[in-house]
Amino acid sequence: MNPRLTHSFRFVRATYADGVAELAYAFDQGEEMVERIRFPEAPAIPAHRQQAFDAALRLLHLIAGVSYYKAGVPPKIEAEPLDDETADLLDALYLHGLAEFAYRNGLDLRGRIAFPRLAPSSPSPVEDGGEGRDEGTLSRGAPALDLPKRTLVPIGGGKDSLVAVEAIKSIGGQATAVWVGNSPLIAACAERTGLPTLNIQRELSPVLFELNRLGAWNGHIPVTAVNSAILALAAILYGYDSVAFANERSASAATLEYEGQQVNHQWSKGFAFEAMLSNWLHTHVAADLDYCSLLRPYSELAITRAFARLTPYFDAFSSCNRNFRILGPKPADRWCGQCPKCHFVFLALAPFCPKPRLLSIFGRNLLDDESQAAGFDALLEYQDHKPFECVGEGAEARAAMYALSQRPEWQEDALVARFIREILPQLDAAQLALEPWLVPSSEHRVPARLQRALEAIG
User: Fold this and answer.
1) Residues 78 and 225 grouped into a single domain
2) pLDDT at residue 121, as a whole number
3) Are residues 449 and 423 in the same domain?
4) Is residue 317 part of a domain?
5) Measuring CA to CA, which of 96, 146, 381, 438 is 20 to 30 A from 102?
6) For the chain, what percentages of helix, strand and coil (3-state, to nearest 5) are there?
C-alpha cells in the first residue's frame, strides 16, 4: 500500500498496561501501525491521578500520530471529536510542526489538517476544576493533584540541557535527568550530571519503515512535541510537578518564509507551542503540572556563555545531530565537524572559551578550513537561509563572528579573515554587538518554584 494514495488517517486506540503504552494508527482500513512507549519500573497509577493519566495518554496518542500521518498526509483525519482547545493545539502542531516537511516535499498542508471537533453545543469533557492559568482566559481547569515538587529535565546530550540541569542544581531543586531512546552519548551525559536518571524507550512501528520503502512521504517531524507528551505522561505516572526543557528564545525564530507561511525547523521548541501545551496540561491534566523551558528568556549566545563555565562537561557533551540519527552512519567521535550544529556550537563557544580549549573539544579549527565556508555562510544568512537545524538566529551568528574578527588570536583564521575582507564591509557594525544577545527577555513560562534558577544562567 502506498500511503500517498490513501483517503484517511485513523487514530485507532491508545492503551496502557504494565509500564507500556501502545498507540495504534492506520491509513484507511490498512494494517495497524502500533508504537510502544516503555516506562521502566513503572509504579501503579494512584487512583486520584488516573483521570489525569488517561487525559495525558490520549494527548500522547494524538501528538505521536504526527510521525505516521506524514507518511501519507491523506485529506481526512479520523479521531474522536475534540474540544476546541485540544483541536486547536493539534491543528497548530501538525500544520506548523510539519511546515519544513511540507516545504521540502512541495506540499501545502494549509486547509488540509483539520482534527474533528465536538459540536458547538456539546459540553467539554473537561470537568470544572477552577480557573485556568492563562490570566483568566481559560474558564475551566483540571484539579491540582498535589504532585511532588520535583522536575523532569530532558537531556539531549548537548550544552543547553546541561545548563538547565546545573541551574536547577544551583537552587537545590530535586530533579531527574530523563531521555527518550537508547543513545549511549546521552546516557553518558545524564550520568555525568549526578542526578537520578530515567530512560524511556520509544519504539516506532516497523510498519512505518515498510511504508517508507513503498514510497511514503518522509521528512522532519516535531519530535520535541512527541517527547513533551511522553514526559507529561511520565510526570503523572512517576509523580513530578514540572517538566523543564532547555529550549532557548532563538528557537521561536523562523528558518524562512515560503509562500506566506513561516517555516521553522524548531517550531515545537518555540514559545508558541510551549504556551499552548502548558495551558492544555493545566486545563486537561493537572493544575499543578507545569511544562516550560527553563532557558526560554535566553539567546543561544547567552546559553553558550553559561555553558562555557561548565568545564566538567566538555569531554562528554555533543550537539552534533549525526550522533542521533535513527538510521545511517554516525561520526567516529563526538563531532563530525561538517554539520550545521558543529559549525554553530563552535562559532557560539568561540567568544567565551579560550581558543586552545575550544580546539581541544572539536579536535580541529573549523574556522581555519576554507572548505567549510558555505556552512558558516548559511549560519550568517549570507547568500543563503539559516540551516534547517537547531541553531541560533543569523544575527546571533554574525555577532559572534564579528566578536572574533576583533580578536587577534582569531583574525588570521581563514574564515574569520574572509568575513573581515568580504562580508563585514556589507554589514552595519553598530548592529553586530554581542552584549544585547546576553540580556534575558521577560517572556517565559517558568513556574515560581524554579525562577531562582534563572539567576544562575544569566
Assistant:
1) yes
2) 63
3) no
4) yes
5) 381
6) 45, 15, 45
Domain match, 452 and 401 both: no
Q: How many domains does the chain have?
A: 2
pLDDT, one tens digit per residue, over 212-266 is: 999 999 999 999 999 999 999 999 999 999 999 999 999 998 888 888 889 999 9
The end-to-end CA distance of the chain, in Å, is 53
- Confidence label for 318 from pLDDT (cuts 50, 70 and 90): confident
Expressed as residue numbers, the domain containing 370 is 312-438
CA distance 297 to 458: 9
Residue 134 included in any domain: no
Give me the amino acid identity at 424: L
CA distance 441 to 438: 10
- Residue 373 belongs to a domain: yes
Closest by Cα among 243, 237, 227, 269 to 175: 243
E runs forming strands in 88-180 = 151-154, 175-180
Identify whether residues 241 and 318 lie together within a single domain.
Answer: no
- Which residue in 78, 97, 128 sits closest to 284, CA to CA? 128
Based on the fold, state whether residues 421 and 451 are members of the same structural domain.
no
CA distances (Å), origin 447, targets 41, 140, 165, 292, 444? 28, 20, 16, 8, 9
Number of Cα atoms under 13 Å in the Cβ half of residue 76: 11
Residues 57, 155: one domain? yes
Strands 242-245 and 256-258: unpaired
The answer to whether 53 touches 237, Cβ cutoff 8 Å, is yes
Statement to judge: residues 152 and 177 lie in one domain: yes
Q: Which helix (H) or strand (E) holds 199?
A: strand 197-203
pLDDT at residue 388, as a whole number: 87
Mean pLDDT along residues 312-322: 84
Q: Does pTM top 0.85 for this prediction? A: yes
Q: For residue 78, give the H/E element and its range.
A: strand 76-78
Listed as own residue / partner, the contacts of 180-184 with beta carbons closer than 8 Å and 24 or more positions apart are: 180/154, 180/227, 180/230, 180/231, 181/324, 183/157, 183/323, 183/324
In terms of domains, do 337 and 283 share one? no
